[in-house]
Queue: 2 jobs
Job 1
Amino acid sequence: MEEKHHSKKEAPVTYAEVNDTILKMLEPPGTGWYLLLFTCLFFLAIGASCWFYQMWSGFGESGKSHPIGWGTYITNFVFWVGIAHSGTLISAVLYLFRAAFRQPIYRLAEAMTVFAVMTAGLFPIIHLGRPWYALWLMPYPNQRALWPNFRSPLLWDVFAVSTYFTISATFFIVGLIPDIAAARDQAKTRFRKTLYGVTSLGWRNSHIQWKHYTAAYLIFAAFATPLVVSVHSVVSWDFAMSIVPGWHATIFPPYFVAGAIFSGVAMVITLIIPLRKAFKLERLITPFHFDAMSKLILMTSGVVTYSYITEFYTAWFSNNPYERFQFWFRPFGEFWIAFWGMTFCNCIFPQLLWVKSLRTNIPFLFVLSIFINIGMWLERFNIIFQSLTREFIPAAWGGYNFSWVEVGITVGAFGWFGMWMTLFIKFFPSVAIVEIKEILPPPMRNEGHGHGHAAVGAGH
Amino acid sequence: MEGQIVQLNASRKSEEGTGLVQISRRRFLQALGATTAVGATACANPVEQNILPNVKGIPEMVPGVSVWYSSTCTECTTGCGIRVRTREGRAVKVEGNPDSPVNRGSLCALGQASLQSLYDPDRIRTPLKKTRTLPTGPVFEPTTWDEVYSKLNEAITNSTNKKVLLTGELPSGQQDLANAFTSQLGFSQVVWDPMQPVAVAKAAEMVYGTYGVPTFQLDKAQVVVNFGADFLETWGNPVGYARQWADSRRSDKPLRFVHIEPRLSLTGANADLWLKPNLGSEVRVALFLIGQMIERGRAKGVSDDVRSKLSQLTKGISATEVEAQTGIPKEKLLLVAQYLADAKSSLVLSGGASTSTADPLPLLVLTNILNVMLGNVGKTVDIAAMEKPSTSGSKLASLIDDMQSDKVDVLITAGTNPEFSFPDAFGFQYALNRVGIKGDGTGKKAGLVVALASQLDETAQLADYILPLHTSLEDWGYVTLPNGSVSLIQPSMRQIFDTQSLGDVLFTVASNTGKELDPSQTFDAYVKSRYLTLTSGKGGADSETFWRSSLEKGGYFVAPASMPAATASVNPAVFSLSYGISVKPSHHGELMLYPYPSVKSFDGRAANRPWMQELADPITQAVWGAWAEIHPETAKEQGIKQGDAVILRTNDGEVHVPAYVTEHVHKGIVAVPVGQGHSAYGRYAKSTGEGGSVFSLLPKKIASGTDAIVLTGAPVTVVRGLGSGDLVSVQEFSSQEGRELARTTFITGAGAHGHGEGHGEGHGAAYGGGHGEGHHEPKQMYTQREHPVYEWGMNIDLAACTGCSACVVACQAENNIPVVGKKVVAQGREMAWIRIERYYDSVPTEDGGEELKVSFMPMMCQHCQNAPCEPVCPVYATYHNEEGMNAMVYNRCVGTRYCSNNCSYKVRRFNWFQYEWPELLSWQINPDVTKRTVGVMEKCTFCVQRIAEAKDVAKDLGRLVEDGEITPACVQTCPTQAITFGDRKDPNSRVSKLEKSERAYKVLDHHLNTQPAVSYLNDIRYKA
Amino acid sequence: MITRIRLAIAGACVSALALVAVFAQQGGVATNATAQDSASQYPELGVRAGVYNDGQAALWDFNITDHFRYFGPPPRLRGYSPEQPIKFSHVIHVQQNKMECQYCHWSVSKAAYAAIPEEETCMGCHGALVQGKSEQGKKDIQYLKDMYAKNQPIPWVKVHVMPDYLKFNHKRHVKAGVTCQECHGQIPEMEKVERVSSMKMGWCISCHRERGASIDCLVCHGHR
Amino acid sequence: MVESTSRAVVGVFTYMDDALEAVKNVKAANLDWRMYSPVPRHEIEEVTFPQKSPVRLVSFACALTGCASGWALAILCSLDWPMRTSAKNIASIPAFFVPGYEWTILFGGLGTLFAIFAFCKIPSVVRAAGYDPRFSHDKFGVVVACSAGQVTDVTKRLQTAGADEVDVRDSL
């Protein structure tokens, strides 16, 4: 409630303030940061041990069974790829659309993208029966004279995810370069000087550099935009290209993309609220931004809800007995709780955002974002697990054996992601310096010529 | 929801401790080693692999080429001919011998699993001496043959009391020698084999005058009315009868089959009409039918005198009364009577568990009378060729009495396990421990118990000394068949351990006491000379050539001659029996015990074989261990849910088993399969032994008028036990959900035959879209694959498939499919490439009611043209090859399991762990089939190694493979020849023709356009 | 500036073309003949066993299975030549005494497996007639006799170690006219048998392609 | 120490319009100059670099190459060892859209990266003499390279434009 009024009479944010506020985040870490890092490392260690145990003992240590070849790992894969998506959306798509609320949150969202893809990319390998042969999915010349099968959606995944990782990482790093240069110029310790000196690649902010940089940045955004749509479409084709009742649906690509943005924005909120609090970024990330993100959530929630309904409608309208059974089974079958949990988290709970005051209510948003994360995990779980457990042949219907190994690896993924995030926020500017400066009115001797966006600082 | 997840999760424990199923972790360690071993060169592990040649050449042995030996299966007494495939001197597969008239090339699950008896890792390897008995069990130490022989000799020489040879039903060769042995050495022989239908033999004696079990010709009957005889499972000659049954069922005039039994057995599941009488009341049905036959003028087969006596007996028995007594609706009773009356030829059978009551004779006798009345003797009942069991429960009971009263000095057991398979109430163990104790009251033990056994079973454990015997795959022998054929048993491989043939042991024991049993001195010579005697004159002059060719062929087989047109007259003595219901609950609501032998465990002899343990029971689909089939009403009263632990308690004992709640069992009974609950007999048998054996529940009672024990009818209480009973079933859902997977053609009208009813009628389907579209050619998006030479395909006739599961074991044996153990199966990770799906459907009857229709459907990889699994594999580990097969390349597989997800038939199997056979069982590995490693998908290959072998041979001959030359393991062994394999490209092959049959359809093809290479033929059922 | 752009475009095109060119080569690996070119080593055969890649793994084609089974150099490499229990010389037997390969390895034309001869076969000559000239020869023949007398097989060391999932059929290859030397090299000239071919999959495939034999996976990976 | 004759005159500006004024000024004088700013702005671009950046051409070329390569890879690999899956054509054009599409973006993106590196001359280890850390903070800078003789003139020009301070350094 405080935020609502605070900016009314404050002075406009200056370039210097932007620099100082953001670079302050890079100051030597306190105990809290170390605690966070070690928690993440601990989780990561759990996950790594579980994976090694799984490889040592056999893949059966995860809970899959014969009707259910995919489960938690692919759920995690889709979940993390989904998380990744909002980052690119915010950084690229909203860049192209010149959305006003994008700048303060995009860096974090983009870091989230890169690290989430790094997390997601682990799962297809973890879920392999013989992960030591994962290389065979790559089309590299080999003595066997064999190539992979380009007709397989899994190979498309290889292409899509690796491209997505490469491009989003490039986009992310390119965006970081000027900011690192800024950090370099204010670095005090020798370590930081060297670190930023090297990673800024000798960036000098010259007008030629800026010219090409801005041109390239636009092109990157233009590349990343179709990519963000294609990657989750390709991921959805893992399912849609199959014949499994409940998977084989043409609505999957848009449905997955919308779901990805939905979950990704929720994850951004989950991450940014503590960060804003910890680093006192209230002047940069204002209720205006939360309001905008809430609206995005509200919209994508609507799209996702619509998709759910469409799925049911399609199943009914197609008169396909297998499909119909599947969609009867999800809400009323053995695993109804997963379905209704998903419905509550993704469709019903977010509707509260129609209330304006809740859209800027930070604690509420935090809780909501956690719920959405859970809901979206359940959504993938419903799609993958529930469909597989009831396929065509009733004699082959079966169940799942959740195991602690899967839980461990899932936790480990959060540890892995968290580790990178934690390291990142302390070593690199997690709020874009240059991009925020861009929307500030530049210092002008003759006022009135400068025209910046009023998104930062001077809230509404 | 929670229930299932929690239950499944709780069952995940490491199984290595039990040593049952070995899950190896070595592979990953090796992989781990690889990453570290790049620099580590100084490691002691040998790099080399050795290749060992034969020292001397063996003429018939070419490395890599199979050698087949003909022999005879001795698992039950039927005497099926077998062919044992050996590679480099090791038996690797047991198949039926096509030359044998008994089984005509097929073999049941148990017979094929005899290989695992040979390779039982817990086999007795040397002579053993019992040193002491601990509370945990007896302790044996290795000893020498000579020591045992001298002890035995001493005991025999000093014996003043009875000397007894206690055996199972020995193969004729051993039995003939045993006869000489007992007569010369003053032994008496007692035979115990619980699977022998001795009451049936007795009833035959009462009616026909000869003791023995007649052979039947099911294919000559138009109507078969069966009182409980499980002739498609374990009763009589199951393989042969199944073939007869199926030949008739798929013919133009299929027999109509009515099964009357309180429990739905596999045989009952194949019936057109299954009637569920109160246990013990079947006799009234038989009596009613006799009355009806007389009334309808179909009693011409008996004399007027007998007929009048019979009408006396049946007087006043009305359908209403019988309905009240038996619980079978009177319409159905009249229907059965009408079937019988209308049929030109018929067959009435009785036997099995439901006739193993305390008073079995009346029913058995009445069915024989029915056969006589209807003129079936000489048409469908052959009383000339009878199997004559020597088993006698009463003799064994009196032996026990003798032993208890210290009248037995020497007891030699061989090939039987009464300690397990004779009711505990008789006190066999206590009695046996008194063998040799002097009757003078001093308690001094002078006598001896020697067990001759291959496996350390419960009876062998009681012995003072154990002499290890060859299994029948290492032994000589012969089996004389009821029709005069002689089937030879010959060793298919050299003995593995320090074992001897039973015959040679008898020879040695006799010669030690100075007796000569036969001039031939050794058992193999004895078999040869006896065989030549038995077949005297039939081999021509050159006996050596005849002997050689007989060994090759498997014996001397008489062509199944036409049956002597015997007529039988009813022995008037039968009228002295009482035909009331003598077996019934003593008070309302009392439950009766109904133990039955199943196709999976028999009397317990199959329990030491992992294949048989992991074979899903065709009816309950349960694996590893016993269960109790409980009617839902009973279960509700006791608060029992599916899978709960229950305690079955009778006056004589109790067993702990999981509950299998099913309405396909009469509510007055609790049905339990016998054969589990071993306390010895190897690791696999013992692993399911905790709950106890059903034989401990049985009363100390011999069925009146017979030599049989009383199996069924003991009053039993069912109590819910603690927690989960560990019921593991591979199929949880029994409804087809209207999906028309297993389809049926119904024949309507009494006896009229017509296929006009269309597919899958009356499956209560909400989505009936699939009717009559079996042959449509959908428009294809892609041009279909050209198959230049061959296009392999398969056809499965559901009208012939009985669900006996022989194919499942054949597949396991042929393709090195691992047995994974109960825990892993519980996680839904069974590995069988072919499974028998069992569906219960409710179908409308002609009179507007509803009847149960059980469908069995063998399901394996369908080798689809438009296979959903293929395009999703990222590494081409599975693809469509030019011979129309869905190929699976194990070594290319990375284990994404996408193919399995996308397989609409769910026939792909993933190696969740590294499965290894323990030593000795590992000898059965088929060297032609790659062993799969952890993390790899596998599935049915149409036995590609056999295809390759046939192509290899054909190529040498410069021609193409001809129809019928390739028989995948399942096709080869199918007792009913329900499966056909061949080249779909050849329009004249059997498989192509069957595929065009009007009954043909392909599973799910009408919805998915998968274009399977496997087609099915509709089941055929009479509309009840 | 313009020049630079042109250069960049040209570079991109060249790299794309190069890429396409690499893939246009069947099999992809551009390392054609290698130092141990079998054709030059064994000129009289006139048939080269390896065609375009000779079973050479690309540098980055690290196949873990080659290594983890054995803690040491894998016996699945060209040039593998282990010490044998008997210093059997193919030079003496084949080259000097003109024995046919199939006299001893008789099962190659009858079965999938090329058997090591039975000791009985060796004893046919060495039992009474041939006792060896050199010291080593006498020792080895005595060893053979001892083993034969003890009814024990000689523990020969496998030179051509193949994985279980490879089902190679000697009979079919021999009947198709593939000579022993094409895969096993000039054994007659070998004092000690050495593996001259990599016997890796690409090596097999190249020959199958060259001769128009089937390249269906199941031909080698399904069965014998 | 040898005295260098070339000098870099560094003008530090607080206001953007001042800096742009200075740029216009030195541009008019045909001096070798460079402008540093903490933020890219189109006002600056209009003055300093009104032409279009050639990055887009490189990106376009690379994207086209990627598209061709992706398709070529998929088609040629499939043709190299033709394996039928599920009756699908060996060259299954619909399925190969994905590699083609993804490589279009991948190559295009990497090409753009390459273009930035090339045109912006990074990574660079050369110290820019006229650079001042404040230029990444909140100040604008105009650096003019000139001979020692021109220093006074240039300094004046920058001061006229409104530089906060003007610094003269050795060699650019």
Job 2
Amino acid sequence: MSPQNKNESLEHAEFRSYCRDWLSHHDAGTPLVKLPQSAIEIMHPEQLNYLRKWQRDAYSAGLIGCDYPVNEGGAGRKGCQAIANQEMARAGKPFLPNVLGLGMAAPTLHFHAQQALKERLLPRLFSCEDVWCQGFSEPGAGSDLANVQTFAEPKGDKWIINGHKVWTSLAHFADWMILLLRTDKSSKYDGLSYFVVPIKSALGKGVSVQPLIKITGETGFNEVFFDNLEISDDYRLDEVGKGWKVAQTTLLHERGAGPMVTPSSGRGNKKASAVGDAYALIDLAKDSMRDGQSAANDPLLRDQIMQMIIRQEGSKQGARRAKVEGLCEHPMRLPLQTKLVMSEIRQDNAAVALDILGAHSTLSINDENAPAGGEWPLAYMNSYGITIAAGASEIQRNILGERVLGMAKSK
Amino acid sequence: MSPQNKNESLEHAEFRSYCRDWLSHHDAGTPLVKLPQSAIEIMHPEQLNYLRKWQRDAYSAGLIGCDYPVNEGGAGRKGCQAIANQEMARAGKPFLPNVLGLGMAAPTLHFHAQQALKERLLPRLFSCEDVWCQGFSEPGAGSDLANVQTFAEPKGDKWIINGHKVWTSLAHFADWMILLLRTDKSSKYDGLSYFVVPIKSALGKGVSVQPLIKITGETGFNEVFFDNLEISDDYRLDEVGKGWKVAQTTLLHERGAGPMVTPSSGRGNKKASAVGDAYALIDLAKDSMRDGQSAANDPLLRDQIMQMIIRQEGSKQGARRAKVEGLCEHPMRLPLQTKLVMSEIRQDNAAVALDILGAHSTLSINDENAPAGGEWPLAYMNSYGITIAAGASEIQRNILGERVLGMAKSK
Amino acid sequence: MTQAKNFAFGENEKMLRDTARKFLQDNLPTVKLHQLVASDSDPYRDPPCHWDKNLWLQIVELGWSTVIVPEEIGGSGMSLVALCALVEEAGRAALPSPFIATAIASLVLRECHTSPANELLQAIASGKTATLASTPKSASWLASDCDVCLADGTLNGSAYFVQDARKVDTLLVQCKTQSGLALYAVPTNSEGVDIIADGIIDLTRDQAHIHLNRVSVSDTQLLSEQACDVLEAAEPGILTLVSADICGAGEWQLQTTVEYMKVREQFDHPLGYFQALKHPLVNVMIMIDQAKSLTYNAACAVDSEPENAAKFARMAKASASEVAAYASNRSIQSHGGIGFTWECFVHLYSKRQKHNQVLYGDAKYQRAKLADLLMGPVYR
Amino acid sequence: MTQAKNFAFGENEKMLRDTARKFLQDNLPTVKLHQLVASDSDPYRDPPCHWDKNLWLQIVELGWSTVIVPEEIGGSGMSLVALCALVEEAGRAALPSPFIATAIASLVLRECHTSPANELLQAIASGKTATLASTPKSASWLASDCDVCLADGTLNGSAYFVQDARKVDTLLVQCKTQSGLALYAVPTNSEGVDIIADGIIDLTRDQAHIHLNRVSVSDTQLLSEQACDVLEAAEPGILTLVSADICGAGEWQLQTTVEYMKVREQFDHPLGYFQALKHPLVNVMIMIDQAKSLTYNAACAVDSEPENAAKFARMAKASASEVAAYASNRSIQSHGGIGFTWECFVHLYSKRQKHNQVLYGDAKYQRAKLADLLMGPVYR
């Protein structure tokens, strides 16, 4: 099979060949520690260091950030990130660790930051020299994100920050944070402003990070406390009071619906890769027994597996159709579904896997006899992270019902 | 098998024996016309006349209204209606036609009417000499029932009624109507009053009835228009402005959660009886083919049928448990579920039947080759009547979430 | 990696589709459709067959029948993707016509590769209509099952679940022969052909079972001697077209219900304010989008990835059949009391969808066949 | 018509249950449970076995172990309905203890009708604990399947999915013999018994697989020579008890989540205002009520309608397994970000429920077996 997609432009075809060639010669090496299922579950520095090297190499080779302008650390290409992503996944490379930087901070900086700030921060973000995290949610501002109370008070050309962010993945490793702050208490939406903050250098000097433990027992997300942290006004994006607008750029990209394609890679090892993929359920069924025979022979499980494969294929073909304007009723209709659909498919894939496993689904990752290393029950529990975070499924349905279908706002 | 239930009192056991004996000797005769699936689908006077005779006979024998006081036309018994109902159903007798009278008007009169009015109206209601209908819903007051706008203006000791009621089943046959009216436009809930109205005698004199056609093509419910209808204040139940309170009695009984047990009988013929019963799906599957073999061999259909049988049995056992205070967390928790659960089971039973029928589910009651006479597709369509009427399922879930679980009112 | 870019849905396909949409909006608004098919509400009526023949003649002039007929025999030689887009519009309008039956017949005919089949395709391109008559009484959708036999040059037996039989000129009758299964073209007005209308729920089409009693056929009517192969080859396209009809009808159900959510108020709010109504409609949208993406993918596969066509078509019809059930459920329930009346248009679409849902196999059937393809058959 | 009135749940049963509820509320509030079982969150920890032995001794004093043991051998001779109510409370408290495993062992023992079985029942009534060790590696729940063999007076082989194995004194080991299947009482500290803890998701119980290597047994340990019949007779009761545990835990999940819906505000309203959260919790309630009604019905049938016990117990466990899945889903999702943390108590119950969901067969399994009872087996 030629590496070229039908109808692909020459430039794209050449870039694809280049990626494939580089990937076939580059070896990410074997990690010395077990890797987690995704970047937001990174617990140990050894995991991060291994993945960071991989991201730096891929960036050096031009596979990351390639659609960004050259002076922002990119390669000034168009439509190439999607190709690089396909090839990195195809090559079975590990995932990229700086996901919040690549998926949220980078596009937000690109669209809203001063030129000097972009030039300073983006190359280090792409190379993973700086790890990024996101300071949006607060104890009282989850689904109701605009209720953010962490306050930035002006003081000359500085801001003094006080407050408390939660569920901040990767904060324990992060150098920088994107931060949604209240600068005016008299107006809910117009009282917000958006900053980037060098968090690691401020640890113990106005910033403290405390790990939270997930239901799986894994760490990976945190509470971040601000106690009179002073930052420069240079770190503000867009105007004071425009924070909600800037945050929309972040959220749109977080939901996979933004104009910049997020760099992404594979999942490294086969076992972890299978978790989350509906087609992997077929092999799981073939390896499992149910009521005295192969689970792959159980008509109910077959039906459930087909349901998942159909939903997953439907989502994949939806991404393809989203590019064909003539086959879309509304330009944001498919893009705004991405996060909701993907997160629910991932959860339901895991639930079907547990059905296939039957009594063996009681076995956890700390059991040496657990089928597939116990990764499926772990994936099931972790799936609530994605149906809750970044706008819970309930909020996503509000957004779709209101912005796409035009029904009345539910609040 | 003895007719006595374990632990049944002697009085109840004797009454059960009496019912069984009377029913075994009484013959309801063969209807000269095809009967509909339930009373609210009665379209033709011949259907009504046949059923009316059966109700009159059963009332004369003491099987209907037996828990009501003697001076209200009852037998002054306690807990006997449930026994009569069981025995009438067991004997496969036709259904009772005056359902809205028996299930809604009678308990409302019993709890809220002046003694004279009860004594005058209830015996004729039980015997089906008077057919009753319900005037609650309006075009602008469906789920939001308290938004009723049909207005009663006082004029001496009379009231002048103007307005428009809809979805009134049996209005085309009804002699009397229970009627929720607005008597004060300045207060939503406290501006309502409750009346009973001799509707048939007023036809053409302030009342007109226009049939509506259902999605099935059947008639049976109507629009009722009031144009300066004058009625006596004697027909008011409870005080002016207490209509919402009185209506709660009606609605509670409509949902099967009221203190008075509604008289009910069987369903007359086997075919119509099967429709709505989950156990009937087993025979339907045995009589149907799917993908070249008996549908009863299809594991997915078997699973669906079992789901329905389990839900139906769960509902039946719930009625049994509702009587055991020690096994209930909240006294209204099971009673208030009845309407929601029964209507959704009925709808889903029909949906599973259509799945079993496969391509044959395209055939309607006007096709002589339709399996089971096409009654299942008809039942499926009619099932929306019950998930929409009498408080749509969405409203029932609000009620349960608010009144039983105590969550905040959704409006 | 061999998938066509943009589902091969280019400017030509878009123009064809947009013209069709406008034509149907102008000529068959739902209020007119309701007058056409729902004037008699009596549930015990004789099975009606309401359609607008004049509208059909205009559709023929617009060239819909020619889309997948090769250019060399009088067609426009476009793709199944293009035809799919037209059928989606037919579904959106709940169009009563011989269009879809004839399109399905065309899919079968183009797999025959015989002179009689090409001649019939040519006739279809110039306005003739046809329908497939191959299903046995058991409603088995397997291409190998049929209840008609050929003996002594005559066809005897019956075909069931024949779509729009009273609107078409020609039946494509599958029959058992001594050497296998054959397919014959039989004019509906042939001696010995008895078309018995089914009483069906759907008001926007007709369905019949057909008895053939000593119907003489000649070699000029022999479309194929490999009927089983032909029908199996055509099946992915057939499933795709029914899926497209469902997607179009589903979109009408969604948009119509959403509009009602905006205008109907209860408790001082438009109904769409209430998440109990809003969120299920979002789910309907997601399901339609999934089915639509899979449908165009399947059409595209029939056109250019035949090795994947069966798999993708099963996915499309499985997904679409779920849409047919759920969009119908929500459209009625969300309309409340109004939705339960004959005068409200939603029942027209619900009934068409319930028919579509089971036609050529429901969701569970498609998934079982898909599992056989992806997992291998069940071994016991 | 032979059903017991009021599920035979009278004043005695109510008092027993109410006392149990209060005892557990006082002695094992959820905060204390969390300290007991969730102090070590490391997902790679060695399988722990946390329980409060002192609490268990108090439970023994309360007489829970004696409930279904006949009076003549030292029990209180109450009904399965009474035991069911206790297990429901154990589920509501997510109690880590050998109580349910021992109750299940009692159900098995009372079907044996042998002296060794009666002696062990008597010992249980005075505080001894036991668990069933009969499941093979494949996790087949059929009573006829096991991976242990008896030869030369010794047991060899393995038993899997043994519940609370590290908390009990005695194993009820099923084994193949030359003449069929037998059941032996094997003290956990016997020579040759190797209990290997499973790493499990559930923090409120332990599970193990057990290797038996030349474990000598004598006739005084022979509980039954008809193990298959015994286990089949006990199965309805076993399913009923697990269902009761699920109902109790489900009620905790419902009430805890509903309370959060009342106190947590977003968009200026308590979360319970939003139908997207409220209505699914109503569905949880309806499902719990269905499962609970079916569970007491099944318990009642075991007590007084043995001919219906298997049928009703399948219904109960099928219904309860759905509760286990859905109540867990909603309790986590409705709690939002908080619900995803280790410090929020909902994960304790979700994990117990996921274990309950599959134990002795999930909903689909129960429905398949129920269909065999109600429809006959599948003929091919």
